[in-house]
Design brief:
It is built from 16 helices and 13 strands. By secondary structure, it is α/β, with parallel strands linked by helices.
Length: 399
């Protein structure tokens, strides 16, 4: 049975619940060198969500308030979840206008699997394929163990069986593809995708010396400095091919929350993007709830750039008190009313108590930049060479 329109109540105990981020699986077929799974092996339990767990969290009465669910992997890839198709069937049958945004490398699935997926999704939904190359050899330079032929088959099958799904080809700029970006863009266009996303990363040797190859003396993956993400720019630059957009957007809701909460955090140390829904409430593959995925990423030690404060991974809140945030053991209401969750929220207002993990991405100055970027309207730049368009985009954002 489909649900009626959601009431205008998108919070639960002061926590936004319209935007979610699910880590359906911590399994992945790839071995990308700068993925946390590769860099910090053993920090993730290899597991996955079940349909029963998703039904428990997203019962029909809760789905009334949910506008978007992102299925993106920091630990793995959603498409390798055994219950993936059953989960999306449940969510879309319960609420047809719910937006699912699925980000995947796209490797190793059969045509029939993609056909079944295509038949579940509709015009509100987005599938983003992370593809950095133009053939098997080039794509494997970073997406190690990817399978280019099956990825192309997936895109072709989705488009063949569902013309409404919004499909994005997303490419990170590396040294090996920097001069081939326009070639990749044209390949993406020929495959019938709606949009090409050029991604700028910070995971390079000039920012983190650990990425410098000791034998070479430099980072072989690092592109020119104009194409490395800076603190003033947005990671993604979209070039639209089809002059259409996914059927729903959460931006109007985010704008509403920005206006509602800007006074609360006007003088705060942390301006939490999770509070306004720019970041989705995150559930990892084990069922642990976090304010966002950023705070879940494992690290060895994390130190503040502004205060004499640091934290080691083993002593961080969501490691030391993991059971308190476990949605397999507790209800959502119990978790977000737990003293430790409240402690985290209260810390945003106090520079002495603020969590280092939150400060990294949501210090007030960083959040304001991200919100300004969100609010700006950048003109499409199809007529330009892609790299020139990225440079122009950076200048406009930074102005």
């Amino acid at each position: 049975m489909s649900l009626k329109s959601a009431p205008d109540n998108l919070e639960l105990f002061g926590q936004q619940i319209f935007h979610w981020h699910l880590e359906l699986s911590s399994k992945c077929a790839l071995k990308c060198p700068r993925c946390p799974r590769t860099e910090l092996p053993g920090r993730y339990k290899v597991t996955e969500m079940s349909l029963d767990f998703v039904k428990k969290i997203f019962a029909p009465e809760r789905l009334l308030y949910v506008k978007k669910i992102l299925m993106n992997g920091g630990q793995g890839d959603a498409i390798y979840c055994s219950d993936f198709i059953r989960i999306i069937k449940y969510l879309k049958s319960a609420k047809r206008d719910l937006q699912l945004c699925i980000i995947t490398n796209g490797s190793y699935k059969e045509k029939e699997w993609w056909q079944e997926t295509a038949q579940v999704l509709n015009k509100n939904d987005i599938i983003i394929f992370s593809i950095d190359g133009w053939d098997q050899e080039s794509n494997e330079k970073y997406r190690v163990n990817s399978h280019f032929e099956s990825i192309m088959e997936g895109i072709k099958t989705l488009r063949q069986f569902n013309s409404e799904i919004y499909i994005v080809w997303s490419a990170i700029i590396f040294k090996f593809n920097q001069d081939k970006i326009d070639h990749i863009k044209e390949l993406a266009k020929s495959m019938g995708v709606d949009s090409f996303n050029v991604v700028q990363s910070r995971l390079f040797g000039s920012i983190n010396p650990d990425y410098i190859d000791p034998n070479l003396g430099y980072d072989p993956l690092e592109p020119d400095k104009d194409f490395i993400e800076s603190s003033n720019t947005n990671r993604g630059f979209y070039i639209n091919f089809t002059k259409r957009f996914a059927g729903v957007t959460i931006n109007p809701t985010i704008y509403k929350f920005i206006k509602e909460y800007e006074k609360d955090y006007e003088d705060s140390y942390i301006s939490p993007l999770c509070r306004i829904g720019e970041r989705g409430l995150y559930i990892d593959a084990e069922g642990i709830l976090y304010p966002c995925s950023w705070i879940s990423h494992p690290f060895k030690i994390q130190a503040s750039k502004r205060r004499n404060k640091s934290i080691v991974w083993e002593k961080s809140l969501f490691v030391e008190h993991k059971d308190c945030f476990d949605l397999k053991k507790h209800s959502l209401e119990d978790v977000i009313q737990h003293p430790y969750w409240i402690k985290l929220q209260c810390s945003w207002l106090d520079s002495k108590k603020a969590f280092v993990e939150c400060e990294k991405h949501c210090h007030q100055s960083a959040s304001k930049r991200k919100i300004n970027i969100l609010m700006k309207k950048i003109n499409n730049a199809n007529h330009k060479k892609t790299l020139q368009a990225v440079k122009d985009y950076r200048r406009e954002i930074e102005s």
